[in-house]
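Journal club prep, notes for RB
We'll compare a predicted complex against what the paper describes. Inputs for the flavin-adenine dinucleotide case:
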Amino acid sequence: MTRVVDRLRPGRTVFSVEFFPPKSDEEERLLWKAIREFEALDPAYVSVTYGAGGSSRDRTVRTTGRIAGETTLLPMAHLTGVNHSIAELRQVIGAYAAEGIRNVLVIRGDPPGDPMGEWIPHPEGITYADELVRLVRECGDFCVGVAAFPHMHPRSADLESDTRHMVAKLRAGADFSVAQMFLEPEHFLRLRDRLAQRGCHQPLLPGIMPITTPKVLGMTTQLSNMTIPSAVSSVLDPLAGDPAGFRAAGIEITTKLCEKLIAEGVPALHFYSLNRAQATREVVSNLGLSDGVLKAT
Ligand code: FAD
């Protein structure tokens, strides 16, 4: 199977899309509608999240396997280590291999409950993502991605330790990383610089959530450990009671963010799609999409 990094080439920007595994027949129908719409746009790859602790294990394996078997898309499965023993993790990795999945986004995951609360690692499991990178590597010929945090991980004490641990994941054998959401390109670019200064030149993909509603904007800030920049809130706050106006302005803000990132030579834009195609399609269309490849950089 093609590796994600084989689809990332210098000198051009492509896009990728993230899904979560559906929980009901209706969610499944909507996801597959979105998958078919994205298929026509030929994204570099699509990924499927994994519920921490294995809550979505079977659904993630099934959805990713179905994408591999029934579409022309290149799938990547997420895998979180938290609350799994090494033996259980090996089983999931084996299930991915059996479905023909060779691209895995390796993450530590958050334990259920308070994401900032104390947690005790599984006694026979892993504590941090770098250990899971090594485990997946030992299990076979996988292309491995890891998570990156432009506003640093919320649990990190400071930027220095955050960077050190990020570097450890990359040096453990990761081929690329995908960033959490952000709204100001400078935070992403500074992270890229910090990693390059430490000799880590693996592709770093920006994570983009098209802003369509106040709820989506709230989700972006909650997940990413950032506050809404004044340049964004000054445009969107007055539109809180105007859904169409908010959406149009949000898509424009998202498009401009992507344009700046393309100008900075990012290899791909990774879209958090929320299992819907429309907003991401609008942004990639605004950017001048052609056969899945965005404007030459
Ligand atoms: P780690 O890299 O292990 O880092 C976690 C924290 O520990 C950081 O503060 C880090 O600095 C610190 N740390 C790392 N190593 C050490 C060490 N040796 N000593 C001390 N401290 C250390 N969650 C899901 O449940 N399912 C998903 O599918 C999913 N997909 C995601 C995809 C992306 C692109 C991103 C950005 C996040 C995703 N998440 C997902 C959320 C993720 O699980 C959480 O952000 C989690 O808290 C961090 O995982 P990690 O792999 O970055 O952890």
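Talking point for the session: Residues 49-52, 78, 80, 105, 107-110, 128-129, 147, 153, 155-156, 161-162, 165, 169, 178, 180, 207 surround flavin-adenine dinucleotide (CB under 6 Å).
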